[in-house]
Backbone:
């Protein structure tokens, strides 16, 4: 059963896990939970540090299942985010500090006392037991069950060091391995915090008016259609629609837009956004678990559980890597010793190989980078729904844009009016009256223009209104028939169109404008050129993508002239016009068959088939749009195309950092292993190589928190 199936099962529960630091621990915890009485199925999301449980169990039983790591469990419904604890104050590090102090005292004693004194040895032994207690418990259990992981390697190495009398180095291995684990735990917690901090964006309560009574209500008790009152300087607690008042609202927490937007009656607002300067009354439209910020957190946490291709490779590699390292260590310890008789030296070298072969850095190299990048993207208004899409975005070759609502604003405007007979205002009132009530976007543009010019048209009485499908409309005024439609419609009405008028129509069409004509069955009264405004960011974004060597394509249902004009304006390398939705899908599939990795950028509604067929589907303006959140692989939460270059930059940097991590973690192991040949590898050097690799890989991954949206 998949995780999505578990999540939709009414007999399922989701819990947050505190203290989950490694993928091996996650796998073991999942296995333990599945064996609990009453549990039918369970899945652990390591990236989000959550467990999905189907069946009946308790938090106490779950904590028993995670007792090997002292895991703490809380119900996801508790709106409680974890406190950010500094590295030095983490409880799990207390035994580490005690053991380190004992080692320091024992070192001083070894220099102060004679060589026969057992005090330093006892001290080092005590440090091994205190610092390595949990390590030995896990390692010995694994050894008995023939499970070979990093705990098993370290346990064998430390016990071996003690048996050959290298107590100091055995203690050092314990301490430095504990530091390495603490770094892993700290880095994963820091990466997860970027998402968990989103939980604090929306307030836990809101001022609600029910009837004539105003009261502060916990968000879990707020119902749909409740009236929420938000004063200036307060955060909005729930998704809703403004029913009274106007204000500027900072939506950066949701969309990544730093500039506040105007919100007034009938406008939508989101939980977690900030009311800047006006008093708003808002009708609640969604419960707390269904609001936009909750959906973002849920989808991002789900994304963190999806394994990227590089992570799948690392997991598969590590599965075989550890047993191979153990075999190599055994061969180094036995074969040269049997030949030379020098067992002490070569057993020591074998133990050093076990330590240097610990795959800590390799195992953490990918998940910490993926979790960090996805969290950073969410905080910048970009929802990436899995590591696979994050990686694929960095290797795209073609980006196909839907025109309307993506490269353009999606709202047509009247740009030109050319009158031949009658007054311009009178003709505008006629065409507005005829188009009034029509749902067509071009009709809406005419109505807006009439309103802008303060033209009175709603009291103009029309008779015999008739829509001629695909061509235009007609209506009668004062016993005279008027027609509104395309130039082709008027060619059918007239034997010919005057050459001067025809030239003006063609010139406007070459500018990428749609021409609507008002006339009678004998005369053309006026032309109205209508165009969808190109977004301010479109040309800049397309130029950036072209410079990166991307093939940029515009897909549209517009005619060739209109499409070419807009394509030239924004600078795309290719234009495909006169396309139906199925034609867009066909084109995307053709690119895929030619082995081109393609992204489709659309609104997530009309372009759903093409979004699904592309390598990466990218939806625009997903804030509050359920369709976009569900259909696309990546969602730009605002209508800001500038988020696209940011996303590609983040993806490329993530890919580069993952490759650097893998190459470095394997390279440093190989370099250390080569030191076995001249006999230079020591336990000290081995553990420093391991902890050094873990530290560098961790810090390298956390650099992704610094990737900014420079738009």
Residues:
């Amino acid at each position: 059963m998949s995780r999505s199936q578990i999540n939709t099962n009414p007999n399922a529960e989701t819990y947050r896990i505190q203290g989950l630091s490694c993928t091996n621990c996650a796998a073991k915890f999942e296995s333990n939970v599945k064996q609990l009485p009453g549990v039918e199925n369970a899945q652990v999301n390591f990236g989000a540090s959550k467990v999905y449980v189907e069946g009946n169990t308790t938090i106490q039983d779950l904590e028993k299942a995670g007792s090997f790591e002292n895991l703490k469990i809380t119900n996801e419904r508790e709106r409680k985010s974890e406190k950010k604890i500094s590295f030095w104050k983490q409880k799990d590090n207390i035994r580490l500090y005690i053991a380190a102090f004992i080692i320091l005292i024992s070192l001083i004693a070894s220099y102060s006392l004679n060589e026969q004194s057992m005090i330093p040895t006892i001290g080092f032994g005590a440090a091994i037991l205190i610092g390595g207690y949990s390590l030995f418990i896990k390692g010995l259990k694994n050894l008995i069950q023939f499970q070979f992981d990093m705990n098993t390697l370290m346990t064998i190495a430390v016990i071996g060091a003690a048996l050959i009398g290298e107590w100091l180095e055995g203690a050092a291995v314990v301490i430095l391995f504990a530091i390495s684990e603490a770094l892993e735990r700290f880095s994963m917690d820091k990466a997860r915090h970027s998402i968990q901090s989103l939980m604090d964006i929306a307030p836990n309560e809101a001022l609600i008016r029910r009837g004539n009574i105003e009261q502060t209500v916990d968000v879990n008790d707020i119902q749909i259609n409740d009236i929420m009152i938000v004063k200036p300087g307060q955060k909005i607690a729930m998704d809703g629609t403004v029913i009274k008042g106007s204000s500027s609202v900072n939506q950066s927490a949701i969309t990544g837009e730093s500039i506040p937007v105007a919100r007034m009656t009938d406008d939508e607002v989101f939980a977690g956004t900030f009311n800047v300067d006006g008093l708003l009354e808002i009708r609640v439209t969604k419960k707390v678990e269904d609001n936009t910020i909750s959906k973002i957190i849920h989808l991002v946490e789900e994304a963190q559980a999806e394994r990227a291709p590089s992570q799948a490779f690392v997991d598969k590699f590590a599965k075989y890597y550890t047993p191979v390292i153990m075999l190599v260590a055994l061969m180094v310890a036995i074969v040269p010793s049997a030949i030379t008789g020098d067992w002490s030296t070569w057993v020591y070298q074998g133990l050093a190989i076990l330590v240097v072969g610990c795959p800590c850095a390799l195992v953490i190299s990918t998940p910490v980078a993926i979790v960090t990048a996805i969290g950073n993207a969410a905080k910048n208004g970009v929802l990436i729904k899995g590591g696979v899409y994050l990686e694929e975005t960095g290797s795209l070759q073609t980006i196909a844009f839907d025109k309307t609502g993506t490269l353009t604003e999606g709202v047509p405007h009247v740009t030109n009016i050319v009158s031949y007979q009658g007054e311009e205002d009178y003709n505008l009132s006629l065409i507005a009256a005829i188009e009034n009530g029509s749902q067509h976007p071009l009709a809406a543009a005419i109505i807006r223009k009439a309103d802008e010019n303060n033209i009175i048209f709603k009291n103009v009485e029309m008779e015999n209104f008739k829509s001629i499908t695909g061509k235009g409309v007609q209506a009668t005024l004062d016993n005279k028939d008027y027609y509104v439609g395309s130039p082709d419609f008027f060619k059918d009405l007239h034997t010919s169109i005057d050459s001067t008028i025809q030239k003006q129509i063609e010139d406007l069409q070459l500018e990428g404008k749609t021409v609507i004509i008002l006339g009678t069955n004998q005369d053309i009264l006026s032309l109205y050129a209508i165009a969808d405004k190109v977004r301010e960011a479109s040309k800049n974004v397309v130029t950036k993508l072209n410079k990166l060597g991307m093939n940029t394509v515009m897909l549209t249902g517009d005619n060739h002239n209109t499409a070419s004009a807009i394509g030239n304006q924004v600078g795309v390398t290719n234009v495909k016009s006169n396309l139906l939705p199925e034609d867009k899908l066909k084109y995307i599939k053709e690119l895929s068959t030619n082995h081109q990795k393609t992204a489709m950028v659309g609104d997530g509604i009309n372009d759903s088939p093409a979004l699904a067929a592309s390598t990466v589907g990218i939806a625009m303006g997903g804030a509050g749009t359920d369709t976009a959140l569900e259909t696309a692989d990546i969602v730009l939460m605002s209508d800001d195309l500038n988020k696209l270059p940011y996303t590609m930059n983040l993806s490329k940097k993530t890919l580069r950092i993952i490759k650097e991590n893998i190459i470095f973690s394997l390279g440093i192991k190989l370099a250390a292993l080569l030191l076995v040949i001249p006999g230079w590898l020591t336990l000290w050097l081995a553990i420093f190589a391991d902890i050094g690799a873990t530290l560098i890989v961790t810090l390298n991954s956390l650099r992704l928190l610094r990737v900014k949206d420079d738009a």
Observations:
- Residues 440 and 446 are 10 Å apart (CA to CA).
- The chain has 27 helices and 26 strands.
- The first helix runs from residue 3 to 8.
- The longest strand covers residues 408-419.
